[in-house]
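Aim 2 progress update. The chain analyzed this quarter is reproduced below.
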Amino acid sequence: MRLTSDAGRLCLQEGIELVDVATASEGRFTADPQAIYPRWAEFRSWAAARTPAGPPVAPPAQAGAPAPRPGQSIGIGVNYADHAAEAAIDLPAAPVVFPKFSSCIAAPSAALILSGDRVDWEVELVVVIGATARNVAEVHAWEYVAGLTIGQDISDRGLQFAGSPPQQFGIGKSLPGFGPIGPWLVTPDELADPDDLEIICMLNGEIVQHSHTKHLIFGVSALIAYLSRHLTLNPGDVLFTGTPAGVGFGREPAVYLRPGDELVSRIEGMGELVTRVVTGAGHGR
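Predicted structure tokens:
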């Protein structure tokens, strides 16, 4: 199943067409994409009786985030060995968890307003939770996943690493627009192997990040099992799973985003997320 939204209305791909869920269900489900997750099992059952999705189609021009208002937005740091190496950090013994506050979630085509001169990119696989998860066994973790989407964990490195030790890690990754996700929510059954997906980020047409999610130190199942031992994951929560090597601050010299830049983020089977960079007041080139 493949879902997107068009001007804030939840849409389901049937064949090569997009149908408005509220209209097709005769009001059984609302148009609000976030409202579908607490009723995910019921929605899946309804959708299963309809025409399955065909080949991927272009998303709507006004596609929104597939989970626009998650109750919790959680980030995982240092989750690819090559990224740990470029950051000169030891491999973690357990997932490195930080808040990526939900107010940063943005539509896949939203313009990125720079907050300063050290704003960086991080392409990531994003998981949307479809059922309440508490003390979940790793072997059953995928059962709690509604779907997967593309995300950018945009990071203001100046703010993130401010202080000694760094004191604003979560805030530096949670400024307005710093969490674009979408344009599609893809259920795991649509993918040949949801644990091994090609992931790419391009900056102005040049590939800057390229890996596969099989290289995650802690994969989706391990992350859900770990997190659900310590907190409750609720339907509609989002999980940014970490980024591979190739971020700007890991380069020599460091490279940061500038007005006019274009980021294209791709994950196998999910299309692409395009982020165009603009400047905020006082933050020109």
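The first strand starts at residue 2 and ends at 6. The longest helix spans residues 220-230. These observations will guide the mutagenesis experiments scheduled for the next reporting period.
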